[in-house]
Amino acid sequence: MKKPEYFLLRPEVEKAYGYSHAVKIGNCIKISGAVSMDDEENPTAIGDLEKQMKNCYSDLEKILEHYGCTFNDVVMENIFTTNMPWFLEKSAYRSEIYTKQFPTGTWIGVKELAMPEFIIEIELEVYKSE
């Protein structure tokens, strides 16, 4: 059995909140929800869902690159948003991220996320072929 390999994108933030941003076990990588924040834990793009979504994908891309993957390796994407109608208006942006095929996934409207400024959070599951 393979040993889990953990990755922290923002170690101080992740330790403060009690999570690891990603863990790889064998060919599977699970990536915690990305939100729009800077390295000092400050929310960014406040009030702008599209910019927050782009910031989420930017952080997710850094994690994918750490494991030698791209968005083409993503098999599941779950999106949590506090404003589903607004997300649905902007969801076409995802076709710039997923250029070969879309992953499976679920879109979930929620009352709130970890900080009131967050409008969207995106988590991924990845399969890395060897």
Walk me through what this model shows.
The protein is of the alpha+beta class. The chain has helices at residues 11-17, 49-66, 84-90, 94-97; strands at 5-7, 22-25, 28-34, 74-81, 104-109, 120-127. A six-stranded mixed sheet has the order 1-2-3-6-4-5, covered by helices on one side. The two termini are 16 Å apart. The longest helix has 18 residues, at 49-66. It has four helices and six strands, in the order βαββαβααββ.
Overall pLDDT metric: 96
Helix content: 25-40%
The count of DSSP E runs of length 2 or more, i.e. the number of strands, is 6
Order of strands, widest sheet: 1-2-3-6-4-5
Structural class: alpha+beta
Count of alpha and pi helical runs = 4
| Strand content bin | 25-35%
Unreliable stretches covering 5 or more consecutive residues? none
Largest sheet: 6 strands, mixed
Radius of gyration: 14 Å
What letter string, H or E per element, gives the SSE order? EHEEHEHHEE
Overall geometry comes to globular
N- to C-terminal separation?
16 Å
Oligomeric state of the chains? single chain
Topology overview:
Blueprint lengths: L4 E3 L3 H7 L4 E4 L2 E7 L14 H18 L7 E8 L2 H7 L3 H4 L6 E6 L10 E8 L3
Parallel strand pairs: 4-5
Antiparallel strand pairs: 1-2, 2-3, 3-6, 4-6
Structure, briefly:
This protein is of the alpha+beta class and 130 residues long. It has helices spanning 11-17, 49-66, 84-90, 94-97, and strands at residues 5-7, 22-25, 28-34, 74-81, 104-109, 120-127.
